[in-house]
Amino acid sequence: MSSKKVIIGWTFTVLFAAFMLMSSIPNIISAPSAIAGFYHLGYPAYLVPFIGVAKLLGVIAILVPGFPRIKEWAYAGFVINLTGAFYSSVAAGVPASGWIIFIIGYILIAGSYVSYHRNRRNVSFSHA
């Protein structure tokens, strides 16, 4: 496995983890901006810290080596979270210019996930 592919994979993963971590912290502390965003989308305030903690646990899961099944669940959770937030934003009337954050999120998670599987497959083949 080339070190270039590993570096690219970890770059996507670290950027995606930072992306999710930066959104989890305001949620965990129930920052007024996070609560206002949830209200705008029609969600109750009590959901804010729950989503924040879930994101934080997901970030830990994708950054810690090993635990492939937990990583799969974390990636699935992130896609569901991103898709739900995107759909909610569209339904709440957020203009298309506000969708760029979701596009960035999808690109980062796709790059991280594909690289994770490519690197994992290459490690498996090299040990066979």
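The above is record 1. Record 2 follows with the same two-line structure.
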Amino acid sequence: MKNTSPPPQYRETMGEAYKELLQKAVHNARHSGERLSHTLTHLRSEIAALGQVSDRDSDRLGQFVQRDLTEAAHYLSKTGQELSTWLGFEEALIESTFWRLFSEAADQTTTELADIALQAAHADYHTGEIAGLGTLTCDSCGEKLHFHKPGHLPPCPKCHSTHFHRQVFS
């Protein structure tokens, strides 16, 4: 079977660009009063302009960040539990500054969730995308993939399927 994973340097660059996009979006939303989702949209071209990633990849990153935050916010509003429960692993495994940033963004997104409740259907995750924090489950075999930092979503290591969903822990 042919390996379709991008090279490690590309995966690392995309993970770093994910963190940078999230950081700038939270900062801008905090200081402008603009919705986080709108701030993410505006920042996509800025991330591409830095030359780290292509325009296409910056658009995809914005979609990935929005998807992850929507999933986290949906979990928070639906269950009333802590965000750390959503992860499915110890939050101590996550870089503390990224965890604080993601938590703040998820809190902001939770307040926006009421406006986008109809769009907050459970997201699909696919091989080749960048996933943020948490645990994803293979739709075919149930294998769990844990993301302690943003990273490339590989094919399922057990069955090679390419479709996943967010694992919800209660």
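The first helix runs from residue 8 to 32.
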